[in-house]
Design goal:
This protein is α/β, with parallel strands linked by helices. Helices cover 32% and strands 20% of the residues. It binds guanosine-5'-diphosphate (GDP), 6-O-phosphoryl inosine monophosphate (IMO) and magnesium ion.
């Protein structure tokens, strides 16, 4: 039985939450491995509709062990709110474990995310303002506070004393902002610690045991490959790796143990925040997709930028992830269109290129070269068998398979678990 990573293969919001919730019905463990509450995973299932930011989307199966891995940055207040919300709605969180190595988002991270964005002016990244850049910067600078630190109050106070002093210098001297109170932050985080202590532990041993027993283990991605700090549209990127390699690191799994890397793609493209997006549309098709698909951010409510499927970018993310398979979501959104475009190359400074440039100034100058395919103009939302899809829809999927050079496992035609069409098995 496989260890399988479910990865965002575009700019996030591809429908990872739906896919993980569905697959978790057959799994034993789900591990979130990156990001923080910048992620928003919408899940629609028999319990209702949920927007998860930190808790793995496997939580609705009480027999699944859910782990928030070392690679996640946790805002404890948000996590406690999420636990309470699930419990109030009849979902148990007794099966939730938090890696003691996961870093915590602190009040100064939230303040600095806002202040840094403001300082960027017209070049703002359009972050979610959840403290993500600052918390991962502190992790690498060895200035972080980790979940395990909440379990030793004396050591926590000692560490916080030095860090708050340093952060207050930056807040007051660089940004002319108000300083934070050491006592206030300490008391608040001690309370969070008391609440979260039953969940915080060493998690890599559990993971190893499940892998060795041959159980189905899902590594749940956040964000998407084009937001990766190395391979995304840097600096318009996030601050932890949403890639298959990041999955291993952020869960505590040796790369040789990962059996499958499955990329989730929308049948078109969206992006929230700043940065180049070659196939972005500013016409009635974009408006139609946005309204039909309700393309507004789960975390921030911002309107998502919409455009045609970019197969140059899609092939690139398939390659850097080493994808073994793909899921195509939101095919139903395209049901009404008479024809569809796929970007199969770029024109850069008068030359045709087939790769995704690392330099965002070059990417911003890329003009998409489109191939046009007929639409199907048929409602696909209640179709369950691949062969029952209209021929034009199957042709669209086959063309995507060719362009991204990997097989499609699953096609999604609605937010519900059952609105999924298997093409080739994932598990
Ligand atoms: P994630 O961040 O990758 O988990 O994706 P989001 O939850 O932010 O955004 C995906 C949205 O699409 C959610 O509202 C899902 O309920 C919804 N969704 C997922 N798959 C489909 C699909 O095949 N069709 C439709 N219409 N909606 C879908
Ligand atoms: P899920 O898991 C879409 C984007 C932000 C911004 C950039 C940096 O739901 O797919 P950050 O707050 O991370 O410093 O912002 O990354 N971003 C996302 N966009 N889906 C997400 O997560 C995202 N997480 C971050 O909009 O452009
Ligand atoms: Mg999302």
């Amino acid at each position: 039985m496989p260890v399988i990573a479910i990865l965002g293969a575009q700019w996030g919001d591809e429908g990872k939450g739906k896919v993980v919730d569905m697959l978790a019905q057959q799994a034993r463990m789900v591990v979130r491995f990156s990001g923080g509450d910048n992620a928003g995973h919408s899940v629609v299932n028999p319990y209702g509709e949920f927007k998860l930011h930190l808790i793995p989307s496997g939580i609705f199966n009480k027999d699944v062990v859910c782990i928030i891995g070392n690679g996640v940055a946790i805002n404890p207040k948000v996590l406690i709110g999420e636990i309470d919300n699930l419990n109030e709605r009849g979902v148990t969180t007794d099966n939730l474990f938090i890696s003691d190595r996961a870093h915590l988002i602190m009040p100064y991270h939230l303040l600095l995310d806002g202040l840094e964005e403001k300082a960027r002016g017209g070049k703002a990244i359009g972050t979610t303002l959840k403290g993500i850049g600052p918390v991962f910067a502190d992790k690498i600078a060895r200035l972080g506070i980790r979940a395990g630190d909440l379990l030793d109050k004396e050591a926590l106070r000692d560490r916080l004393t030095t860090i708050i002093d340093y952060k207050n210098t930056i807040l007051t001297k660089v940004y002319k902002a108000k300083p934070l109170s050491l006592d206030g932050v300490y008391e608040q985080y001690c309370q969070y610690g008391e609440r979260l202590a039953p969940h915080i532990c060493e998690t890599t041993i559990m993971l190893d045991e499940a892998v060795n027993k041959g159980e189905v283990v899902i590594l749940e991605g956040a964000q998407g490959a084009l937001l990766d700090p190395d391979f995304g549209t840097y600096p318009y990127a996030t601050s932890s790796s949403p890639l298959a390699a990041g999955a291993c690191l952020g869960a505590g799994l040796g790369p040789t143990k990962l059996d499958r890397a499955v990329g989730v793609y929308k049948a078109y493209c969206t992006r929230v925040g700043g940065g180049p997006m070659p196939t972005e549309l500013h016409d009635e098709t974009a408006e139609l997709i946005r309204e039909r698909a309700h393309e507004y951010g789960t975390t921030t409510g911002r309107a998502r930028r919409c455009g045609w499927l970019d197969a140059v970018a899609a092939r690139y993310t398939s390659r850097i992830n080493g994808l073994t398979g793909a899921v195509i979501t939101r095919l139903d959104i395209l049901d009404i269109l008479p024809s569809l475009k796929i970007c199969v190359g770029y024109e850069l400074d008068g030359k045709q290129i087939g790769y995704f440039p690392g330099d965002i100034a070059a990417l911003a100058r890329c003009k998409p070269i489109y191939e046009e395919l007929p639409g199907w103009q048929t409602d696909t939302t209640s179709i369950r068998g691949y062969d029952q899809l209209p021929e034009a829809a199957r042709n669209y999927i086959s063309r995507i398979e060719e362009l991204i050079a990997c097989p499609v496992n699953l096609v999604s035609v609605g937010p519900g678990r059952e609105q999924s069409i298997e093409k080739t098995p994932i598990l």
